[in-house]
Amino acid sequence: MSSRADWRAHLAPSMPAELAEEIDVFEAQMELRQQGRIDERVFAETRLRRGAYGQRYDNGLRHDGDGQKQLRYPGDNLTKGPDTLWDAPGMLRIKLPYGGMTPEQFEVIAQCAEEHSDGILHITTRQDVQLHYVHIEDAVTVMRRIGAVGITTREACGNGVRNITGCPVAGVCSTEAFDVTPYADAMFRFLLGHPDCQDFGRKFKIAFSGCPGEACGLVMLHDFGAIAEVRDGVRGFSLWVGGGLGPTPRQAKRMYDWVPAAELLPLAQAVGRVFARLGEKKNRNRARVKFLMEKLGVEEFRRLVDEERAILPHDDRWTSYLPAAEVWKDNPTKAPAPLRDDAELPAGYAEWARTNVQAQRQEGYSVATIALPLGDITSEQSRRLVDVARRYVGDNIRTTVEQNVVLRYVPDADLPALYRDLDEVGLAAPGAGTILDVTSCPGTDTCKLGIASSRGLANELRRRLAAASYIGDASIEGLRIKVSGCFNSCGQHHVADIGFFGNNRKVGGFSVPHFQVVLGGRWRENAGSYGMAVGAIPSKRIPEVVETITTTFASERAEDETFQDWIARLGKKEIGVLLEGLKSIPGYDEDRSFYVDWADAREYSVRDIAQGECAGEVISRTELMLTEAEGTAFDAQVALEDGDLLRADELSYRALLQAARALVRSEDSDIPDDPDTIVREFRERFYDTERFFDRFSGGKFARPLFVRHADGPPEQPDAEDIRTLADETALFIDAVHQYEIRQAGATGATV
Amino acid sequence: MSDVPARITARFFLAAPDAADPGSLIPVFHDWIRRGDVVDGLLIDVADYHHVPDGPGVLLIGHEWDRAVAFDGDRPAVVSVSKRGLEGDLATRVQAVVADALHVAASLADDPATGWAEVALDEVEIGIPDRLFAPNTPESLAAIGGEIAAALAPLNDGATPALEQHGDTRRPFRVRVSLSGSLGVRDAADALRAVAA
């Protein structure tokens, strides 16, 4: 295979310098970890913040149905995180803000999937793309390849700002106040790597929606959400904070009734600061914003945010994008054109158009949804879809939170031809947004936390529903089914009409996969309310649950009664009666199929569940910044070995600054990335006060920072001098570490 | 650029494509993991993608190899993908991958549950999913086609087989190799392994 170095050299001309350097530093951190010079916890969080996630069985253990067996990877038990073996394949998550991507970006992701993964692109419920079974060393090449076309994995995992989701029909929808795309885009760029978002105890998810009524952005289930609203001719947003799913789901609270768009970014920054300062750090189960909101109350939370907002140093980026955002427009490839009444329609078109095509606000254009089974699409299909997109819509491609892809700005006259083209590549399945379009998280297929096979169940439901005659009933067809493999809710089961999450029950000494049934969640109104858990049912009986619930609803509902109203009317007790007969489990010797999960052949076990990485490792910002400094110092040594003296000098100096800044930032979170300020602040706070000094060496390890800063780069680079500088840089970083350890010892904190 | 790619694919098409039953692969592949001695390398898990139209089917994921019965071509095929650990020049590696695919096909065909997975030996498709090493261009074919063809002569009664390249330059490098050898599946695998060794 072409090596990382091959790809690095090949892509160097097309990589943005800053991103290239970030990935170089990560690569250096990998090498340091391989040498045992970075702690596995620190490397885990570093890795997660670069979007490289663990995957099931990466602790080297797997239950094969008879018992738990060792997977003997090479590599001398080297780890890339606690209980996470270096050589075990992992998942790489690629962020697509508001689900947007160009044909070129789509094609590069497809190439990466077939060269470094298993040839499948998996669209997630937060509009990302995930590649599975990626070796950590290939992950770096993927980062470079997608980075060269303007997309990133940065902070796709770990305790930071995750992908920003947004309405996939923003800009073309008739119910929106205005197109939220440029605002979501601005926030994505503003918060990516923002210093105020590096000290979170858990992840932070953001969503945008153009209106309150539709589902699109699912604002209510996010840590921070913005819903567009125009007041007195001014664009602005209502801001919502503290939503979330998981075992303790919470609806977001309206923190600001309305703020002008100019306040959007600074308020998000202020919320980030409050969360970083006051959010839980030790107990990861209580570390999301929703718990802080609950503890403080919305009024106090807002007061703290206002207080923080008032003292924020001004940032031009808060408003510099606004003039362009006001006039932002999509760029359709083709002119609008109506579908003629006498147009020849291919077989299957009418049904596809009924469920998968939505008229745009712009007359003569439509949005076409490509319904992907379980969010999966192959590399080859992606390439063919890219061709179709280029032919009809150009850049107007988006992923959706229902794990589909939409093409926007399809001229109505082209819809039959589009259908034919999609059909040729197996992408013209009807049923988008209907009960057939079942959403599922990865579950036990690849997730370390999965309890039951969500994808196996979802696929079985799709198969049975496609063949069931009863779904022709209009009241049933529009229902949504969502499945999660565990209570963490990545399948968003809380906001489905019919939702499920995996759990386990012991029967006669054997484990039996079950799904908790959650009914009546409200998808519309931005995930307006959460469903009611009504009991656990054996996994193999869940298809019967769906049939029982849907057919009973169709036959017994009052005229115009919604599913949510019907569930509320029945209540838990009556639903319990309805499902009671489905709870029974035949004995192990009578029917072993109940003791095996969907799409599996092994006797069911929960022993494969491992420590998840959703929460990441809570590592201090100082520690992470020092790890970056170590990566840069490592690159300096490499440059020295390559004989590139000026680069070795420059990288050593940069590593010195990074380490000094890490320390200053522990006391001043606003320390800018400016060498003069860093050196001055470091000197005043730590050197002149002798706090940095240790009892044997005094402050001598700080001298290279001061000397190199004062002298600037050498005019005549001398190999010996630069080698000394590189060596002293490593000593300075180590001295900063030692200072941190001394401080932790003094305060009893964990470094 | 590295001289030899690590990732090479070999695919043999099913003799009776209509008989393919992807669901039956799941218990068989799980059993192979449990037994540990059916195919080479560390086996990790089974990935079920048979819900994806024209997709990779059901995969047996390993550390060094992935194996599958895939449905992503014009006919279902038994596929082996080498990912790491191969040694030697390109010809040796191609022989190792083709031998593995034949061994996988024979092992599937031997199992009553997947007896439908018999492959035809009149052609094999070789892929190199590494665009930097071998873009799917006539130049790549000129550079490495001869080596691939020569490597597969043992499956063609010693004669160098003909290659046909897929035309789409955006796809990974892939050639279809026409064969007219007289060996059966197991013997063909053994012959290639002997040469590769």
What is the arithmetic mean of pLDDT of chain A? Answer: 93
Segments of chain B where pLDDT lies below 50 for 5+ residues? none
Distance between the termini of chain A: 39 Å
* Count of distinct strands of chain B: 8
**Structural class of chain A, please?**
alpha+beta
Biggest β-sheet of chain A, characterized? Answer: 5 strands, antiparallel
What distance lies between the first and last C-alpha atoms of chain B, to the nearest angstrom?
26 Å
What is the helical fraction of chain B, as a range of percent? Answer: 25-40%
Helix content of chain A: 25-40%
The largest sheet of chain B, given as strand count, sense and whether it forms a barrel, is: 8 strands, antiparallel
Which segments of chain A are poorly predicted (pLDDT under 50) over 5 or more consecutive residues? Answer: 747-751
Oligomer: heterodimer
Radius of gyration of chain B: 16 Å
**Strands across the major sheet of chain B, in which order?**
2-3-4-5-1-6-8-7
Side by side, the strands of the main sheet of chain A go 1-6-9-8-17
List the domain count of chain B as a whole number. Answer: 1
Instruction: Give the DSSP E fraction of chain B (strand runs of 2 or more residues).
Output: 15-25%
* SSE-based structural type of chain B: alpha+beta
CATH architecture of the domain at 173-329 in chain A: 2-Layer Sandwich
Taken from the alpha-carbon principal axes, the silhouette of chain B is globular
CATH class of the domain at 173-329 in chain A, named Alpha Beta
